[in-house]
Design a protein that fits this description.
single chain; about 160 residues; mainly alpha
Length: about 160
């Protein structure tokens, strides 16, 4: 049962993406067909989720294969890095975990763009972050310190007026 869970989720996301894409195409021809439901945004949302899921599954499959050395090219790569036949290859697992984290941290940003984070709003957020931590120091201090400075100081307020 657990073996087919990933395939089931992939099929479900694929079918949902296809249906929402068809609904978005239909709503272009007949704008009031779904009662004002944002069909294109729903289609983009499901496409982002499907793409993220497939990328995550692909990374997982490559990492598991590299860790075990299943294919010939994987065995050659392990031999090139002087990893023994039965020895676990933990670096690949760490790299896969970091790639998974990166993918799933970028998904909310992509969804914000789909659902209406405008370029002006993004610039306003960036300007406010730079103002709070002092100019170009944001690039040097890194995202952790930016998040900490926003957490410690007052809440971020953006005026759209």
């Amino acid at each position: 049962m657990r073996k087919f869970l990933g395939t089931g989720i992939t099929v479900l996301l694929f079918v949902g993406t296809c249906l929402s894409g068809l609904a978005a195409a239909y709503s272009v021809l007949y704008p009031e067909a779904f009662g004002g439901l944002p069909a294109r945004k729903i289609a983009w949302t499901s496409l982002v989720l499907l793409g993220s899921w497939i990328a995550s599954r692909l990374i997982d499959r490559v990492a598991v294969g590299m860790s075990r050395g299943q294919r010939r090219w994987q065995k050659r790569f392990r031999a090139l890095l002087h990893v023994e036949e039965g020895e676990p290859f933990r670096e690949v697992d760490l790299g896969a975990a970091l790639l998974h984290l990166t993918i799933w941290l970028l998904v909310p940003l992509a969804l914000l763009f789909v659902w209406g984070l405008s370029n002006q709003s993004l610039r306003a957020c960036s300007h406010e972050i730079r103002r709070r931590i002092g100019g170009q120091a944001a690039a040097r201090q890194g995202i952790a310190s930016v998040a900490w400075s926003l957490h410690v100081s007052e809440p971020l307020k953006i005026n759209h007026g």
